[in-house]
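User: My collaborator and I are trying to settle a disagreement about how two of our proteins should look. Neither of us wants to argue from intuition anymore, so we agreed to look at predicted structures for both before our next call. Could you fold the first one, then the second, and keep them clearly separated?

Assistant: That sounds like a sensible way to settle it. I'll keep them separate. The first protein:
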Amino acid sequence: MFLPEDLSESSLPSTTDDSASLRGGRRFEQIGTPAALKLLESIVDGDLPAGTSAVFLVETSLGVGDMFFAWLERCKALRFPVYFIGATSDPVTLDWFQHHTQEEMVEKLLSQDLKLPGFQCKGKEPPADVLLSPPPAPQFNLCSLRAGPTMAVPDKIMSEWATHPTHGHEFQDMVKAIFEEFGEPKPAASRPAADDPEIEPSPKRRRVADSVEFVDLDRLPGTKLAEAAMAGVKKDVQGKIMVQVDMKHEWWVSNTSDKTVSLAAGIAVAGFGAGQFQHQPRQGNEPAQVDTEKLLLFDMTEADLVLYNNKLETLGDLLHTRQVEKGKASISYHEVTPAPGDNLKKFDIVRKHEVYFKPTAKVVAEGEAGGEIKLHKGTGSFASLVPVSTLKQLKHAQVVWSVKWALKGLVPVKPYLCILEEIILDSKKAVKL
C-alpha cells in the first residue's frame, strides 16, 4: 500500500500522521494498476461515438496514480490520442504524485518499458568507439608503480636522500607532494592483511571483538527489573531465549533451552513501542533543549549502522548503493554531499532539522516478588523502560534505526536495540550486552 508523503524538509514520517496508521494508505484509492487498466479498457475499447478523434480521461480521485499508470500502459496499443487529467484538492497528494510519477517514468524510460517519439535511451556505458585508450604507464629507472596507481620510492633511495645534508628537505617535500596527489603506496603483498583498518568486515559476519562476559543462569548478578522472551529467534527455541534488565540497567540475554544458539548481528533485542516522531524547531541556530533521556534523535553519520530490509548495514554502504542505482542519495532532515577523495562510500552529512522519536511503552506485565516485572508480550517496547543514556553504555548492542527509501530520501521507521556482532550462546548460559 502506498501513502502520499509530505515532501517538505521538516515533515514527519507519514506513519505518525494523525490521518494515517502503520497499516498504510486508504485502500479504496488503491485498486491496483491491473484493475484500473481493466476499467480503462472497458471505456476506450467500447463503442465510442462516431467521429471520436480523441478521449480525455479525467480522474477526480487521483489517489496514488493507479489510473495514471493504467493510462500510460494502455496508450501503447491505441491509435488515437487519450489524454489524462488528474484532479485533487490536497496539495500534499499533488506534490507527492508529481514526484512519484516522474521517478517511475524515468525508470521506465531507462529500462525501455516506456518509449517516447524522438527519445532514445543512452546506454549505461559510453560506446567503445568514442573511448580513448589509457596512456601506457611510465617507465621508471629507480621508482616503481603500485596499485592506485601511485609511485613507490625504494627504501635505499629514501635513506640516502631524505637525510641528505643539502637536498634532504627538498627531497622530502617532493615525496610528500607525490603522496598528497596520488596517495601513499601500501606495501606490496599478495593479499591484504587481516587487521587492515581500511577493510570493513561484512555486517553479516561481524564477530565479537571485545571480551564478552558469560555466566551460568543461576549466577546472574543483580536484581531483575524486567524480563521477556526475545523475538526473532528460531522456532525451536522461541520462548526460551530471555532478555532481562537488572536494577543497574545492565542487559542480559539468557539461553534456557538445551541447545546452543547463534545471535546474529543485527537481531533486535528490544524495541521502543509504537511511539511517535516530534519535530523540535531550532532556537536561532541552536537545537531546542529537550529531555534526551526520553527522546531519541534521528542523527546520522556515514559510519552509523542502520537496519535496511532487516539487514545490518553501514549508512555509507547504503548511500553508495543508492547513488549507483539512482544517481543520487539523500537522507531526510540532513544534507548529504559526497566527500572529497576517491572513496565513494564517504559522505559529508549535516543535520538540518531535529526530529525525535518519543517511545510509547505498551507493556503488558505482572509484578513478581522483589519488584521484578514479567512481560507477557515480548520485548516490543522493552527498551522504553530505561533511560536512553543507559543504552549507550552497552558494549555489544546499540540503538539502530530501521530505515526505508522514500521520495524525500532515506527516512526513519523505528529505532531498535540491536546486537552488533554474532554471539554464540551455549545452553543454560547468559551473556552481558
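The second protein, kept apart from the first:
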Amino acid sequence: MADGVDQPRGAPAAEQRLEAVPSWIELLYKRGHGVRAFFNPLHMGLVHRFVDEKLAVEPGRREELRSCALSALSSDDARTVVQSLAFLMFVGEASDLPRVEPFASSQNDRVREAATTCRFELRRRAKRR
C-alpha cells in the first residue's frame, strides 16, 4: 500500500486500511456504530454523544479520527466510505469539503446520500464559526 502499511494477503481493502489505526477507531468502523443512525435525525444526537465520548478520552483524538476518515475515503469499499463520511460530519472541517464533494455524485445511493449530508453539516459548521 502507498502509505507503507503491511497488509495481510487476502484481507479486504477496508480491513487492510484499518489495521494501522488505533483500536478505538477500528472499533467504530467495525461496529459501524449504526451508520444509518448517523443520517437519521432522530438518532443523530445519540450517535454524536457516543462519538464525543470516544473523542473526549484524550487530546488529539478528534484530529486522529478526522485523519483516518479522510484517508479511508480512498477505500473501494462503499461501507467504509459511508462510515468515513459519517465521522467527517462530526469531526470534519470546511477544508475537507473538496474531499467530500466528489462523493455527492456517486453512483452508489448510500455514498451519495452520506456525502450530501456530510457536505451540509460541514458547511453549516463553517457558518457557525
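Some points you might bring to the call about the second protein. The two ends are 37 Å apart (CA to CA). Residues 1-17 have pLDDT under 50 and may be disordered.
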